[in-house]
Amino acid sequence: MRFVITKRFEEAYRVLPDNLKKKADKALRLLADNPAHPSLHLKKVQGVQGIWEARVDISCRMTLEIYSDHYLLRNIGKHDEILGNP
């Protein structure tokens, strides 16, 4: 599955600390290979139709939309901030 990256995701990723970038890269590889991987905790964002969240680490999440031929990466960052504006 291919990724389509929004400008917001790109900008948020760019300012992540290096350790979170490495974790995000790993989460993206897992998402591409096996979206059901347990460490991703992939689930729908409650109260928002069509948007999913995946875990990067305990405090960092990424949001995305899932289409038949690609994932649209929407945002990445601190859990509470991301889910407040997926």
Summarize the structure.
The protein is of the alpha+beta class.
Q: Termini distance?
A: 21 Å
Rg value: 12 Å
Helical residue percent band: 25-40%
Question: What is the helix tally?
Answer: 3
Q: Strand order, biggest sheet?
A: 1-5-4-3-2
Overall 3D shape: globular
Topology:
Elements: E1 2-5, H1 7-14, H2 18-33, E2 43-44, E3 52-57, E4 60-66, E5 70-78, H3 79-84
Parallel strand pairs: 1-5
Antiparallel strand pairs: 2-3, 3-4, 4-5
What can you tell me about this protein's structure?
The longest helix is centred in the first third of the chain and has 16 residues, at 18-33. The two termini are 21 Å apart. The chain is globular. The model has no long low-confidence stretch (mean pLDDT 95). It contains three helices and five strands. It is α+β, with helices and mostly antiparallel strands and 86 residues long.
Question: Any descriptors?
Answer:
alpha+beta; 5 strands; five-stranded mixed β-sheet; about 90 residues; 3 helices
